[in-house]
Design the sequence.
């Protein structure tokens, strides 16, 4: 049984996709501009974590005769200042927020749109980053003046870094959104998120550069997603990696991104079947 | 013959809900063995809605109205039966289907909270791929019809409930949907605002030939907009027909209004006296006895005026809702 459908506005699929992403990103930027003071407080909070790591490791390096496993105090400075940018690029729609989204009825609204909710999340948080990056620049300059980072990347390293930070963003989005799907079956999905965060802290290069970890941890990290969201983008700019390592790293990151989105797609399909729209 | 815009056949939704007794022992027990119970929210309902119809979906809280609307809009997967809207299976949530429907839920905000509604409208334009020119003319028309001229420039969080509902409706209709699912769109609003939204929905239906399924606890909404109502209770359809026929089906009585020359005349013998004001009185009498009682009144009393009326729709609905499961 069919009925005659009303004529639909037709536009090129790619063009309308670009339009959607651009409009959503503009919306995100406009939203961020509503809270100028909150943005600065947020940035200060974000900077506190790497500054603590930086101060501790610089002190250890100095007391250790100038370096720790070959990383000098200036090397740590470069690592953790780049870290601040990578961390901001890594902010995505977090898994625990799925519970809020369901409870508040926001997810129902998103399901009613002729656009997969993941596109909104990717576009919105990508737009948000432009505000954060503008706010990050003076902070990075200030940290550089205080800690004197040793940083002299090549053009290739800069290019790989620029791709890798967006790759990290996409990978972390896919992983977090997949974990978020647990909220459709349990109200305690946060427990899995906590496990993810603890693993990320140790195996990504977030807490400690992976170079300082035991050999077996470094090997393990190569086969898990965490390193490709933190350690690899940072190392691509500060780690003097060979061209082959840089390109292999990008390939590994791309594989993880594709694999994670495939898993997310399946998880989402089952989650929606399970959805009871209790929040509205 | 034109196919129905909404076709529902044996539609069923069963929720599995966890349950346990209160107390620590029950909490510990539930760690080992979880108990669940099936809640049959919608039980094999069937109906069709034609293009351009405005149908009121009535029922008490928990009757299954919202669950039905959610299945028809693709938010919920049915547990059984079939549903088709504009020829699409809603649970597949195809893009072309979603572009032609909208679901407005009272008290639910889908606009960007921190931004003026105009920014959310722009986002909806991009989401629904509405051409710029069409978007501008539709937006301006809706803004004018709902009289929200200056409100669309204020951050949504600064709007009152009624104002927010109006801009919410503008946002939900920018893509000119053919099917509107309205779930208590006037809930919590003052009488003037309710009236305005009611008039707007009627106007939209007439102008665009849109099909509307409306749930509301305010009978004024239903009386103003819907000639046909579907009454649902305990997940089952109790009545599907003209609003005017609802009284015949469920009300076991009618009311007789009389104006007497002798205002003090006793009337208890004719029926239940529910109102008396000087020479005017209102009696409630069993439906089957209405003609006989009216004839008796006319012959035994000095009647200046007599009217026989169906009971108010609110009373009928109350009777329907009081039906045992």
Sequence:
């Amino acid at each position: 049984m069919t009925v005659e459908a009303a004529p639909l506005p037709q536009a090129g699929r790619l063009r309308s996709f670009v339009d959607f992403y651009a409009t959503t990103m503009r919306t995100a930027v406009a939203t961020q501009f509503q809270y100028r003071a909150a943005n600065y407080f947020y940035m200060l909070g974000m900077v506190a974590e790497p500054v603590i790591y930086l101060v501790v490791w610089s002190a250890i390096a100095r007391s250790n005769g100038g370096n720790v496993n070959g990383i000098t105090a200036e090397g740590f400075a470069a690592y953790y200042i780049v870290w601040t940018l990578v961390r901001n690029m890594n902010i995505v729609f977090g898994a625990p927020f799925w519970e809020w989204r369901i409870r508040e009825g926001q997810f129902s609204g998103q399901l009613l749109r002729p656009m997969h909710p993941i596109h909104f999340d990717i576009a919105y948080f990508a737009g948000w980053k432009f505000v954060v990056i503008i706010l990050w620049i003076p902070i990075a300059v200030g940290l550089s003046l205080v800690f004197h980072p040793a940083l002299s990347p090549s053009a290739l390293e800069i290019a790989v870094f620029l791709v890798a930070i967006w790759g990290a963003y996409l990978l972390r989005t896919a992983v977090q959104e997949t974990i978020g799907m647990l909220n459709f079956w349990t109200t305690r999905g946060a427990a899995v998120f906590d496990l993810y965060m603890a693993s990320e802290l140790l195996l990504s290069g977030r807490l400690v550069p992976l170079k300082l970890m035991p050999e077996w941890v470094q090997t393990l990290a190569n086969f898990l997603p965490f390193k490709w969201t933190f350690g690899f983008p940072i190392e691509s700019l500060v780690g003097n990696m060979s061209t082959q390592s840089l390109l292999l790293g990008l390939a590994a990151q791309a594989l993880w991104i594709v694999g994670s989105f495939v898993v997310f797609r399946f998880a989402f399909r089952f989650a929606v079947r399970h959805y009871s729209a209790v929040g509205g | 013959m034109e196919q129905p815009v909404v076709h529902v056949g044996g539609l069923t939704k069963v929720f599995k809900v966890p349950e346990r007794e209160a107390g620590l022992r029950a909490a510990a027990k539930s760690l080992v063995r979880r108990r669940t119970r099936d809640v049959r929210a919608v039980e094999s309902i069937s109906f069709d809605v034609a293009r351009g119809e405005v149908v009121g979906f009535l029922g008490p809280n928990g009757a299954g109205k919202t669950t039905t609307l959610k299945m028809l809009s693709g938010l919920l997967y049915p547990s059984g039966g079939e549903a088709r809207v504009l020829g699409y299976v809603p649970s597949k949530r195809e893009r072309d289907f979603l572009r032609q429907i909208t679901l407005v839920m009272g008290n639910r905000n889908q606009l960007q909270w921190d931004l003026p509604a105009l920014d959310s409208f722009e986002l909806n334009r991009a989401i629904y791929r509405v051409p710029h020119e069409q978007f501008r003319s539709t937006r301006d028309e809706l803004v004018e019809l709902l009289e929200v001229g200056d409100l669309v420039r204020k951050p949504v969080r600064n709007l009152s409930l009624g104002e927010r509902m109006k801009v919410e409706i503008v946002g939900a209709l920018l893509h000119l949907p053919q099917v509107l699912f309205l779930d208590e769109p006037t809930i919590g609003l003052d009488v003037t605002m309710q009236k305005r939204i009611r008039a707007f929905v009627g106007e939209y239906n007439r102008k665009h030939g849109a099909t509307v399924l409306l749930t509301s606890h305010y009978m004024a909404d239903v009386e103003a907009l819907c000639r046909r109502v579907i009454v649902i209770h305990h997940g089952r359809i109790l009545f599907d027909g003209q609003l005017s026929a609802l009284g015949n089906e469920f009300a076991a009585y009618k009311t007789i209004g009389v104006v007497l020359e002798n205002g003090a005349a006793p009337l208890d013998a004719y029926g239940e006296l529910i109102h008396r004001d000087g020479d005017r009185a209102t009696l409630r009498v069993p439906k089957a006895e209405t003609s006989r009682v009216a004839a008796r009144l006319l012959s035994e009393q000095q009647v200046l005026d007599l009217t026989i009326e169906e009971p108010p729709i609110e009373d009928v609905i109350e009777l329907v809702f009081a039906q045992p499961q």
